[in-house]
């Protein structure tokens, strides 16, 4: 497997020099990642900022390692969304890494916070789960992994701001029902399994009500210690 | 006879996908039998069916959905308990050549032995030597989950009587060695006819219809005729365009997509230049000019001219940036749509599905970072899809027929994986 990946990386590195079958002529699409991900941007926005569809997530600025893990999961069917599973099926892993790097490097502003129709009690419950968790039910604070400012940590933990409530609930639901799985140990599955419907509604509403922080960049790798192990964030 | 027909269709089903990654092309003339066997296993695309997503290579367990239930491919690693570790070379030859298990039992034709029977004994033995050399994986085969009566293997006998003729490839002495090498690969290990043949009333492929094209059941993709120049017949393609298509997935004339992307990704990209060229020579050779049937449409003329004018509006807004206002594209990466057989065929299934689902050609050694096309299923209505497909099938001198909104709607539910 390793040798194969190397061979492919070399092939990609040589792309510029490649002048065989896929000959360059004047009339070619731009040789950029932006042109190569045009298949993605109708759903994710030109810079990965997201679109008006509440289930289509923002990609911009998320940790590259996290985005790469998601692309692998879609390619291999561990995470299911048929239109994306289909697009990625025959793309080489080093190319998926480049797509991940591309969207991780985009920095369009976070969207303005939409007015929430959740009650004060619901928002308070959400805030308390995110910042303190619920030790009695063995739910760690979301911030203990996603960071005190909820901007995530390199390489594998995403920030939780700039996501819409419908998307957040759908993802937590997908973990509870097993249609989304991450690398083992799948810590997010363990967290999601302990949440009730009410908890999910509350955290989704509260997270979506947060204003953009000054810096949205994920914390560097190893900035803090996770409460338990995550396959997506090897130490 | 009726009762066995569904089983016959099973063998036409192929299952896209695998986590196989690129690798250096092994040299088929290399001194080691194992290396030659590895190369031949690539040419036979064993990995497409015998490796599950994220599964260990060749350990089987890949689910193959069929209209009659689900088949699971077998573990063909040399594990003694769960794989083929106890098989002799003779057992293996019997499987590949006759479609029989070591105890004489009949294999489902989803395992393409009807094509592999053409493979020589020496090549079959090289594949066996290679399979014996890979790491054994202890993973028990999963039972097939077929509904009664399809679970009864005796039904396979009926299929065999009609569609299976055992026998190694016989070269045609009137043709060049290169042509014959191409024929050997296409008809044998390449099992191209498994998809590129019409499914007749009995759901099988008859010899005389080989390579004449057909709709792949369950997947809803049309595998075009390789003999008709109105479909994927390559009679007027240059050899270079054909070899580019097979080796890299893209060419100046068109690109591969859907199940054909799987074939290029897992198999054809690994064939060496000589073998690729031989296949191209053969494919070009079997294409026969067929009289173009008058474009027939089920739509009244008034309706189709309205559709086509709406189609031009949709095209200029959503498609022209890549495919060009005159359908000229920017080949090979953004394929041309003018004079592109693959969208003019009688069956409009493929162009409709392309517009609904978009796609990337496979990433290959020759084209590791392909450009893609977005899916339009969520952006365009049935009417707009029908309109734009009707437009590209008839504009710029293209000779396809318009399609209806109903045809577009029906393909929205086609499976994506």
Question: Helix fraction of chain A?
Answer: 40-55%
* Domain count of chain B: 3
What is the number of helices of chain A? 11
Distance between the termini of chain B: 31 Å
User: What's the end-to-end separation of chain A, in Å?
Assistant: 22 Å
CATH top level assignment of the largest domain in chain A? Mainly Alpha
Quote the beta fraction of chain B: under 5%
The CATH architecture designation of the largest domain in chain A is Orthogonal Bundle
In terms of quaternary structure, the protein is: heterodimer
Can you write the helix and strand succession of chain A as a string? HHHHHHHHHHH
Approximately how much beta-strand content do the residues of chain A carry?
A: under 5%
Can you describe this structure?
- The complex is a heterodimer of chains A (235) and B (417).
- Chain A has 235 residues and is mostly helical.
- Chain A folds into 2 domains: 75 residues, Cytochrome c-like domain (Cytochrome Bc1 Complex, Chain D, domain 2, Orthogonal Bundle), CATH 1.10.760; 109 residues, Cytochrome c-like domain (Cytochrome Bc1 Complex, Chain D, domain 2, Orthogonal Bundle).
- Chain A contains 11 helices and no strands.
- In chain A, helix 4 crosses helix 6 and helix 9 packs across helix 10.
- Chain B is globular, with a radius of gyration of 22 Å.
- Chain B folds into 3 domains: 126 residues; 110 residues, no CATH class; 111 residues, Orthogonal Bundle (Cytochrome Bc1 Complex, Chain D, domain 2), CATH 1.10.760.
- The N terminus of chain B is likely disordered.
- In chain B, helix 4 packs across helix 6.
- In chain B, strand 1 and strand 2 form a beta hairpin.
- Chain B has 17 helices and 5 strands.
- The interface between A and B is large, with 44 and 47 residues.
- Chain A: One of its GO terms (cellular component) is periplasmic space.
- Chain A: This is Cytochrome C.
- Chain A: One of its GO terms (molecular function) is heme binding.
- Chain A: Keywords: Heme, Iron, Metal-binding, Signal.
